[in-house]
Structures are given as C-alpha cells and as structure tokens.
Amino acid sequence: MARTEEYQLNVGPVHPSTHGVLRFVLTMDGETIKDTEMVLGQLHRGIEKIAESRSYLQFIPYTDRLDYISGMTNNYGFTKAVEDLAGITVPKKAEYLRVFVMELNRIVNHLVCIGSLLLDLGAATMIIYGFRERHKVLDLFESLCGARMTFNYIRPGGVRGDIPEGFIDNAKEFLRDMPKRIGDYAQLINDNEIVHMRMKGVGMLSPEDAINYGVTGPMLRGSGVSYDIRKDDPYSVYEELDFKACTRPECDTYARYIVRMDEMYESLYIAEQALKRRWHPTLQG
Amino acid sequence: MIFENIYEIIAFILNSAGILQYMQSYSDALGISIAPKLIIILIETALLLVGVALMVMALTWMERKVLAHAQARLGPMITWYHGLLQPVIDGVKLLSKEDLMPKRADRWIYFIAPMIAFVPALLVFIPIPFGRDGAIISDLPMGILYVMAVSAISPIGILIGGWASDNKYSLLGALRAVAQDISYEIPMVLTVIGIVLITGSLSLQDIVLFQDKIWFVFLQPLGFIIFLVAAVAEMARIPFDLHESESEFVAGFFTEYSGMKFAFFFLAEYAHLFSIAAIMTTLYFGGWHGPMIPMIPPIITSIGWFTLKVLVIIFFTMWLRATVPRVRVDQILDIGWKVMIPLALFNVFITGLLVAGGVL
Predict the structure, then answer these.
(1) 3-state DSSP call for residue A159?
(2) Fewer beta carbons within 10 Å, N or C terminal of chain A?
(3) Which chain B residues are closer than 8 Å to A188 by Cβ?
C-alpha cells in the first residue's frame, strides 16, 4: 500500500501568475487543492500614513500609484473627496473632460485585465493585442499630461490643463477604431471551446456572497447584481449621460469576462458623448 | 544507380572519389578492416546531428517569427537579416550561462536527465524516409514500432529530471508531463495500427510507397484527427503544454535547469517537434511524394517535398499556440482516456472491418 500525504505548495509573491501582488500557501493532495492560505499585504505601502504628512495637492501623485493601471480614476476619487470637503464646484467642461479620460482609463484597465487573464490561461496573444490599444490611449494621455502612467492630471477644481492641439482628432480616431478591435478580441476568445472549458463554472461567486464580501464593479455585475455606482449613486456628470450597466447572471469567470467586454463598448459610448458635449458650442462655464 | 540508404550513398561518393579504396587498403594493412565502415557510420551520425541541429535552429527562429507576426510584433530583427542569426546568439548565450545545480539535487540523475530526453529524439529519425532513392538512414522492417518505442523513452528523462531537481514545481510539472505523454501515446499507437492494417507492413518506407496514389489522411480521416491531437500533446505544445504550464509551475520540470542542461531539454523539445511532424508526414501526408521537377535529381525534390510538408505541420502547431489557451490537467487526461482512446479503438475496428471485407 502506497503511503500518500498532503504537502504545501507556495505560490507567489514572485511567480508568473501572481505578478508580485499576492501569495498563497496551498495545501495539496496530489493535484487537488485542499486548503488555501492567503498571505496579503504585498501591496501595502502605508499610503494613509504618507497622506497625513502631505498637502492635498502633494498627495495626488501618490494616488496614481495605488493602481498603476488606472491612475486617472484614482486621481478622481481623491480629488472628489477634496472637492466635497472644500465645497468646490467644478466647471461643466472640466467634468466632461474628466469623464472622458476616466472612461478611456476604464478601457485600458479592462484590456489589461482580460489580457492577463488569457495570459494566465496560456494564450499570450491577447495581452499583446490589448497592450497595442492600451498604448494608443496612453499616447492620448501623454499628450494631455506628459506622463504615460503616473498622470497627476485631475486636480481639485478641474484638470491640470486643457487639451493640446490635435487631441480631439486623435481621440475621435481611437473611438472610431476601437469597436472593431473589441470585435476582434471577441472573435478570438468568446466562442473558443478551450476558453469555455477553463472559464465556465469556475470561480463561482453567488450574488449573496458578492454583496456580503463587499465586492463592487464588474465582479459584482458578473454575479448578476445590477449595481453600477455611476448609475445608482451618480457623481460627476454621469447623470446626464446615456449608458447601461452590463450584467451577467452566470456568476463565473466567463460572466465577469463578458461583463468587462461589454463595458468597454459602454465606455466608448460614454467617452464619445462626453467629448461631444465638452466641445458643444452651447456649453457654458 | 539505386541506393538502399544513406550509408550506400556515402560509400558511393567516397568510392568514386577514390578515398574508400585507399582507406580500405590502409586499414587492411593495419588489421582493422572494419574501420572504413565505422568511419562511414560516423559520417552518417554527424549528418544526422547536424541536420537535426540545423532544423532545430530554423524552428526556434520560425517559432519566434510566426508567433511575433501573429501577435502584431516583429520578433528578432537585429541579428542579421530579419534576425536569422538569433538561434546562434541564443546558443552562445546558453553556453556561456552558469550551470547551476540545486544543493540537494540528486547529482547524477540531474546530470543525465537532459541527455535521456535528448538522445531518443535523435534516434527516432533512423527509420524515417526523408526522400526517395535511399535518403533514409536505415529502412528497419519494424520501423513504426521502433519509432513509437524510442519516442516513449523521453518521458523517463523528464520524470527523473523533475525528481532529481528537489523542487516541488519541478516534480509536479514532471508528473503532469509524464501523465500526459503516457495517456496520449496510447491513442497514437492505436491510430497507427489502422495504417499498418491497410499497408500490411511496419516499415515506414513501405508505408510511404503505399501512398503513391492516395494519402492516408483521406483513407483514415478519423485516425488522422486523433493522431493530430495526440501529436500536439506529444509535442507538448499549447493547448496541451502541461510540460511547462508556467502559470502554475513556473517552468514545469526544467524549473531548476540552466545553461547547457537547459539547452538540451530545449533541443529535445524542438527535435521532438520535428520528429513527430516527420512521422505525421510519413504516415498521413505521403512522406516524400510530390510532383517531381525535371532537371533536378529526384532525391533532392523528394527531400524538398518532405521538408515542406513537415514545415507546414509545424507552422500549424505554432499557429495553434498563438490562438488558443491551455487545457487544464484533469481535462487533458479526461480527453485522453475518455474520448481519444475509445475513438482510436473505434477507428481500428472500422479499419479492420474494411480491410477484412476487402474494401481497402
């Protein structure tokens, strides 16, 4: 009789699939994972303590680095809090520009997410396609604020500066090309049999669990809960804009992936509206 | 002149150059009359080694380029014309790397594992006919059996390499790799039975000659599909690349290997890719058959056709790698045992009925 025993396997924080952010200690029985111990805190940088000793303006660059994929959105979160505290009203045209850059940033974020997901499943192609389009957005951001990832662009009361020459043309070109690109990704991934094998029914998160754990964003909408803070508790100018909250009822990884794909289309639509309204001749103040 | 194999071709060339007689008389005088024979065999071995090494270099370059262009990149561009010298640079890099060995590794087994993986990948080429008129090292009467048996040795190298590394990732990667290799060898051999039933010969040269009129891919479509899936699994390519599975086990069984030992695993992987594509060409795509071009010796055209078919198959696997993700380990084994083996048995059954009924 062969003797078998459980063993421990360490995954991360430096591991091809954890990208330096997380560490698991797995208890394994052969190929079966019996227990997982999460070791958190790899990304803890004491950001709150730093914030205590900085002025409001000085702290904005730190928010870029909270999540280096979506710096614009992080800028906005902090700036919004400062504005609410100080009672600053922001001009409409600045709000439209903010919404525009935030939605483009959302697209970048989803592209990196989908790319990494497929990379970890073993398909290296998607991340490179995603990064190709990401670079186009980063080019736009660079022309806006001079940085590709650490933007420091959204400030209390508005944004750091107005758009440079040729920005609108480049932005329109991106908005025009992108739906076709997303269609390409969908063609590559959506109906792939192996993708279904790997993603359908995997990582189930029931709606109750999702709410209890405080999950938000595409993760929550992938569990079939139609809650989008841009719709249900609108900030900025989202109230005026037309878009829908994308949800999927399946609760698995595939549903979350599809939600992100759909949201990219919605983000493009929102960005288009914001761009149109920002430079509408009748816009005042 | 009709030659049986490469040995006779080399002997003929040496003979007509007048070297062979000189060597023969010299060694007879020394009392070692077998020496010229050994020298010719050494030349054959060198030809095989150089040929496979060149092919592996070409394949690594092709892999980079195909993958790069599929992914909207350029791939290697700096080393000479479109990076053609990149494999040479890679070789120099691997040679100059420090050859590390884990402190608690099983030294001898760790040392010998890459060779056990590499040598069978070379030996497989012995009975494969590369072209007509004797472009074959040795036409073994049980060639296909030999090929299957020899290529089944490689997993031992993988297993002991993973075991000797004293690393959990390596061991798990090796176990997965071996489980996969064994599961997919069975349907592969079973599909070959279908072909052997039709030709009535185990010799690869006979199998190629049989495909003069019609390729086996048309006679055995189901067998071909099973063979193709099993071949991709045996080559350890995406979607069946459990050998590496880098998102779980860092680099699979060769996590701890570096320098020249890693290079041997790397060479073995590509030599394996080449050998399985060559077997597939021989079994299903008519081997070296193809329209002969006048003015050029048929031996060269036939080798050209063979190489072209092999490259098309390899291009297909690279295309596959650029397109699909990896299948999970339990799913791979499920497909192997629950789908592939029954289908392969069904294929043998149908072929047997057709052969017995005199249809084929």
Answers:
(1) strand
(2) N
(3) 323
